[in-house]
Amino acid sequence: MAGESARVPFVGLTGGIAAGKSEALDALERLGAATLSSDAVVRELLTTGEIRDLLVERFGDEVAPDGEVDRGRVATVVFGDDDHRKWLEELLWPRVGQRILEWREGLDRRDSPPRAAVVEVPLLFESGMDSAFDATIAVIAAEDVREERANARGHEGLASRTARQLPQEEKAQRADFTVRNDGTLGELGEKLSEVLARIEP
Question: d(Cα 196, Cα 116) in Å, to the nearest integer?
Fold first, then answer.
């Protein structure tokens, strides 16, 4: 059984919008890490009756037509309203943190633990969650590359979507490891393999 000496390194992954966080998370999983997306945890939480009822109580029935939370409508309501955004973050972030902790503790109990436990958190530093991790990785890319990727996904310009985020250069300065993702997925995997080797105990 895995004991305390085999504790799985706990790693926070972040980066700018369209820098390639999801691709990095996938690559780390292929390299033997267990991975989790905090956005996926949020999506799961929004399907619960508890969160739905609290959202309807604050924002009205229009955010949950047919009894299911409409994430797009919630985003429209909270976007640009600091009070609403702060309320939503205070509602969700503690619950996200608890889900991540439970997932993390389960990995330590595995007979064959993964090389690392990596959680993708877009607002890692902004939320103050970075202190919970043993190490942090920031994925960055050139502005023109990020703009091209964002446009390819049908997203609006980067400027309006990054207003709540730290500049990616600051994320890189605060992270323990920085990985540039301007090239191929193969190159990204090679860089992440090197980082993972340095993080392992």
Answer: 8
CA–CA gap between residue 71 and residue 45 (Å, rounded):
11
Polymer length of the chain: 201
Q: What is the 3-state secondary structure (H, E, C) of the chain?
A: CCCHHHCCCEEEEEECCCCCHHHHHHHHHHCCCEEEEHHHHHHHHCCCHHHHHHHHHHHCHHHCHHHCCCHHHHHHHHCCCHHHHHHHHHHHHHHHHHHHHHHHHHHHCCCCCCCCEEEECCCCCCCCHHHHCCEEEEEECCHHHHHHHHHHCCCCCHHHHCCCCCCHHHHHHHCCEEEECCCCHHHHHHHHHHHHHHHCC
Radius of gyration of the chain (CA): 18
With both helix axes pointing from N to C terminus, report the angle between 82-108 and 71-78 in degrees, rounded to the nearest 10: 130
Sheet strand arrangement including 177-180: 34-37, 117-120, 10-15, 135-140, 177-180
Residues 152-201: pLDDT tens digits? 665 554 454 555 678 888 999 999 999 999 888 899 999 999 999 999 87
